[in-house]
Specification:
The structure is a single chain. By secondary structure, the protein is mainly α. Helix content is 74%, strand content 0%. The protein is built from four helices and no strands. Helix 3 crosses helix 4. The longest helix has 64 residues. The N terminus is likely disordered.
Length: 153
């Protein structure tokens, strides 16, 4: 459901991926990774590109929050319809469709952001970030497995 766009977002919006949903190992590192001098150097980012990435993030962050809030509201309404003594199946399905539409809107916005970042970086630097993200995910997975083994002992 969640497209690889979350990659670039930070704050509660991004971390939540922008945020919940299925893991996607093609995502980029969370946070304003372009503000890290090491990343700027590794990717050879210009100040103009850093500024453009900031602008893209700031433009989208509020929209992500609004769309996530819309999902929460639709979920709240759906939960309410599920709690009544006598189910109104048509109303329930209509509300479910509203929830799915809200989710699709967020996914669409994330994907548009993903495409915007890809345009800014170009193909080679974009692939570098994807590979970095995959390594990070593997390290986290390995760390979680080690942690799980320690807890099981």
């Amino acid at each position: 459901m969640i497209v690889p766009v979350l990659i670039f977002a930070s704050s509660a919006v991004a971390a939540q991926g922008i945020a919940g949903g299925p893991k996607n190992h093609d995502r980029m590192p969370l946070g304003k990774w372009w503000q890290d001098p090491a990343n700027v150097q590794k990717l050879n980012l210009t100040q103009e590109e850093v500024d453009t990435l900031d602008e893209a993030f700031n433009t989208r962050a509020r929209k992500f929050m609004e769309l996530k809030h819309a999902i929460e509201l639709e979920q709240f309404e759906l939960n309410g319809l599920m709690e009544v003594k006598t189910l109104d199946e048509p109303a329930l399905m209509a509300q479910f469709n509203k929830l799915e539409s809200a989710r699709a809107n967020l996914s669409r916005e994330r994907f548009q952001y993903f495409v915007q970042i890809r345009k800014i970086l170009g193909p080679d630097r974009f692939q570098k970030i994807k590979r970095f993200r995959q390594r990070m995910m593997q390290q986290q997975k390995n760390g979680a497995m080690k942690q799980g083994k320690r807890q099981a002992q």
